[in-house]
Amino acid sequence: MPLPSPGVSRLTELGYADIELPATPLPRMVDPGDALLLKADTFNLSWLEVGKPVSLRNLLASAGRQGQSPAEAARRLTAFGCPVPADHPLPDTPDTRDIVLIRTGPGGNGEWLEWGAEASIGHVRNVAWTLRCNPHPVATRLTALGIRLPYTPEPGDERILRDPGEPVLAIAQETGRRPAEIVSRLAELGHPRPSTVPDTLEADDLRILSEELDGRSPWLERNTVMGVQLRHILRAALATGRSPADVAARLTALGYRLPDEVDYPEVCGTLRR
Questions:
Q1: Residue 176 burial (CB count, 10 A)
Q2: Fewest beta carbons within 10 Å, which of 61, 85, 111, 192?
Q3: Where does the pLDDT of residue 188 fall: very low under 50, low under 70, confident under 90, or very high at 90 and above?
Q4: CA–CA distance, 164 with 245 (Å, rounded to integer)
Q5: Please, are residues 202 and 250 in contact by the beta-carbon 8 Å criterion?
Q6: What does the pLDDT look like over 68-118, one tens digit per residue?
Q7: Distance CA 140, CA 34 (A)
Q8: In angstroms, what is the C-alpha Rg of the chain?
Q9: What CA–CA distance (Å, rounded) separates 16 from 69?
């Protein structure tokens, strides 16, 4: 590997007097990839300036090009006189998706979050949709990069955000958390759920809320225009041994809209509009 000092001496011999050098000594060893690390993330061929703080965008782009972690790239850039202004430890694990996490504008050259900026709840959700992943790891990685959020990510968030269509009662049964607590946390995370979710789980609730009436995904979708199909109410009544009126009442309690102007009988038979 070539040494920086002989390289500087050779340039001087060749007549290059105006050489930009950092105030601190250069690294003893140079890696072939250092040139790409020092390239600015722009459409034109440009380079990071010595002594000028590195933007978060340039750091993550450089780390991604080299397969390095943000912390490793920051140490290397700082050694070359390009200071990284992070005021907290950066992640030691590489992730090529980091650059996607901080992009806020889709058009042109894009817009980017900078050091210490705050990302909105909508930004977290949009990135998760783009990457087709759970919003929780997006939130935790953003905070690790120094981006502020309107909420503090919690370990339980990943579970409750796993399936947007999953009934709150199914999450409550698996996690042991109260439905009201889950609804409140979902609202904090920008995922509002109906406020009418009961605080107790009845034996047949998950069967009634599942499309195949087996208590598992796929779950019954919330149709706020037409309401739950009559077919599902009748099938749920036959599967559970409950009356259509009872199933309809429970669906209402669970926050689902029902078809208008329907008289639900106490026993399976005919329905009158």
A1: 7
A2: 192
A3: very high
A4: 28
A5: yes
A6: 999 999 998 888 888 899 888 999 999 999 999 999 976 656 789 999 999
A7: 29
A8: 28
A9: 34
pLDDT at 164 over 80: yes
> What are the structure tokens assigned to 96, written together?
């090529």
pLDDT at 6: 53
Q: Where does the chain have alpha helices with state H?
A: 4-13, 34-37, 56-66, 70-79, 98-101, 121-131, 135-144, 157-160, 168-175, 179-188, 205-208, 230-240, 244-253
Amino acid of residue 21: L
Q: Provide the token pair at 140.
A: 């935790």
Over residues 209-239, the pLDDT tens digits come to: 999 999 999 999 887 788 898 889 999 999 9
Top pLDDT among 70 and 255 is at 70
Contact 101, 127 (CB under 8 A): yes
Task: Indicate the length of the chain as a whole number.
Answer: 273
Dihedral of alpha carbons 176, 181, 182, 185, sign: negative
Task: List, in order, residues 6 or more apart from 57 with CB less than 8 Å away.
Answer: 41, 99, 102, 112, 114
> Please, which contacts does 195-201 make with residues 24 or more away whose CB atoms are closer than 8 Å?
195/255, 196/253, 196/254, 196/255, 197/168, 197/169, 197/254, 197/255, 198/169, 198/253, 198/254, 201/169, 201/172, 201/173
Write down the H helix ranges in 119-178.
121-131, 135-144, 157-160, 168-175
Q: What is the DSSP letter of 261?
A: S
Contact between 142 and 120 under an 8 Å Cβ cutoff? The reply is no
Cα–Cα distance for residue pair 245/179, rounded to 1 Å: 24
